[in-house]
Design brief:
Blueprint lengths: L1 H15 L9 H16 L3 H19 L4 H6 L1 H4 L3 H23 L6 H18 L20 H6 L3 H18 L5 H24 L8 E6 L10 H24 L7 E4 L13 H11 L4 E9 L6 E8 L7 E4 L41 E5 L18 E6 L8 H17 L3 E5 L4 E4 L5 E5 L5 E6 L8 H5 L2 H26 L1
Parallel strand pairs: 1-2, 2-3, 6-7, 7-8
Antiparallel strand pairs: 1-11, 3-4, 4-5, 8-9, 9-10
Helix pairs in contact: 1-2, 1-3, 2-3, 2-9, 3-6, 6-7, 7-9, 7-15, 9-13, 9-15, 11-12
Length: about 500
């Protein structure tokens, strides 16, 4: 059993090579057949579950190594967490691989087992989005979000079935070679069909006409600005200077006199913009009274005690035109879950906002704001009853360092654009900042660790996608039906053998 677990661990590590930013998709065509082979050798469902746990542990130790980065920034206080954080999280997330592995052991070898594995894997990932505050990071559907045309084609079905539906497709298609040469040929044929379907959707997408000029600002401040007031103010001045550059570019390339809206990253302002007239005046003096700035900030609630991680909409020195409060907070980073018996974070942490919303600000297209971690929650970022025209994502990926973390986070945001059929502007403090159209095409980007601005006509939105209508019900039903089909085929095979 020890050799089996070592092999499962190695297969999991190999599978991690398919994750952003490596995108080595063929690794899944090796690791998944390997996992199925090991499950087939297991003597019980318990052994199969342990094999799945070892596979998930290897996958997530490599895929989540960057978790150590924010701990090292606060090493003086949290140094003792360094040896435990990544292995502990990888083990916890690995449970969601162990369950599908255990369940598919009951299915007969062959197609029934592959279907049960793909369906239950999808349902397990869906549970991962909600259990213990949720951690929907690195779903395998994002493995196909390869930068460039290939990735843009392959992610198109997310408009119907979401990233979880793509995960189901990946698990099934990459597992087919375990059936032999016919399975390998079927896998290739399905990938070709996938690309054809994606290409057809991409060619037929007709977005609306741009209604604004968007400027994305990247200041490249280190994570220490969150606790160093002097550094924070210096970074704020840098954002003012970069904003002036963005406005100049926007005015020079705006023949139709479209409204100009600038997007700053998460917590870009060290000042409480809700109450600080001087800070709002500084922004207005820099960009002009007719330019709208959506800036990351902190704000106090009406009780004067609760504090929110927010976005504020500034136009001129007057009161904020709108605010949005982050509601999907980072556990142990922004708040401490109530179920944890020991106190790790000082104080109470941030308060939660009320959920997805659409900001209707006069003069700019209706916008769906999201902050940082919220962008990884498929189907939970848009208020569908009040559909916006675009998504504004503000984040501060400086906490992740120059690791795979910012690249994985970027891929998740790109998937949200496709799922919702909405253009997405992403402002990240240290990068990667980018603008995606409603089909997930990358219009432009600023790489990691650079200062700069992106200025472009805001891409138009598409009609509501199937996923926008159905949300997480789409991959849920698909996962359940796929698993049930595997069960039915398995029962039928056993009955046929008996007769």
């Amino acid at each position: 059993m020890r050799k089996t677990l070592i092999l499962a661990l190695i297969f999991g590590i190999v599978a991690a090579l398919a994750l952003p930013p490596v995108y080595l998709l063929p690794a899944l065509w090796v690791s998944l057949p390997g996992l199925i082979w090991l499950i087939g050798r297991a003597k019980s469902w318990r052994q199969a579950g342990v094999i799945g746990l070892a596979f998930g542990f290897g996958l997530n130790v490599v895929g989540l190594y960057w978790i150590t980065e924010p701990i090292l920034i606060e090493a003086a206080q949290f140094w003792w967490l360094v040896p435990f954080a990544v292995p502990g999280l990888a083990l916890a997330v690995g449970v969601f691989t162990a369950v599908p592995a255990a369940l598919c052991w009951f299915a007969p070898p062959g197609l029934p087992r592959l279907l049960v594995l793909a369906g239950t894997w999808t349902i397990a990932d869906l549970a991962l989005q909600f259990v213990f505050t949720g951690f929907p990071w690195n779903f395998w559907g994002t493995d196909v979000a390869i930068p460039g045309l290939i990735g843009t084609v392959l992610i198109q079905p997310a408009a119907w079935i979401g990233v979880l539906g793509l995960t189901l497709c990946i698990v099934f298609v990459a597992s087919l070679p375990s059936l032999g040469l016919r399975g390998f040929a079927a896998s290739i044929a399905l990938m070709v069909a996938w690309a054809v379907v994606g290409g057809l959707r991409l060619s037929r997408a007709r977005p609306a006409t741009p209604a604004a000029i968007v400027g994305v600002i990247q200041g490249d401040g280190t994570a220490e600005f969150a606790s160093d007031r002097t550094a924070a103010i210096a970074l704020f001045r840098r954002y003012l200077r970069l904003s002036a550059d963005a406005v100049a570019k926007a005015r020079a390339t705006n023949p139709h006199n479209l409204p100009i809206v600038l997007l700053w990253p998460e917590t870009a302002s060290p000042f409480m913009l809700q109450t600080d007239v001087g800070a709002r005046q500084a922004i207005a003096d820099t960009v002009g009274p007719d330019v709208t700035v959506i800036a990351g900030m902190l704000r106090f609630g009406a009780d004067g005690q609760s504090i929110y991680n927010s976005l504020g909409v500034v136009r001129g020195p007057g009161p904020l035109l709108a605010t949005y409060d982050k509601w999907h907070l980072v556990p142990f980073g922004e708040y401490q879950p109530a179920w944890l018996p020991m106190q790790i974070l000082p104080g109470e942490g941030f308060s939660r906002g009320t959920g997805p919303t659409t900001l209707h600000v006069p003069g700019i297209p209706p916008v769906g704001p999201i902050i940082c971690y919220e962008s990884v929650f498929s189907g939970q970022i848009i208020k569908e009853s009040d559909r916006p025209d675009w998504i504004a994502l503000a984040t501060n990926d400086a906490w992740f360092g120059n690791s795979s973390g910012p690249r994985q986070h970027l891929a998740a945001g790109r998937m949200r654009a496709v799922e919702e059929g909405l253009p997405l502007a992403r402002a990240a403090n240290t990068g990667i900042s980018a603008i995606f159209d409603a089909s997930g095409r990358e219009e432009m980007r600023i790489g990691h660790g650079r200062q700069g601005v992106l200025v472009a006509p805001l891409p138009g939105r598409l009609p509501p996608t199937l996923f926008a209508y159905w949300g997480l019900w789409a991959p849920s039903i698909l996962g359940i039906c796929t698993a049930l089909l595997g069960v039915v085929l398995g029962v039928r095979r056993r009955l046929f053998r008996k007769t």
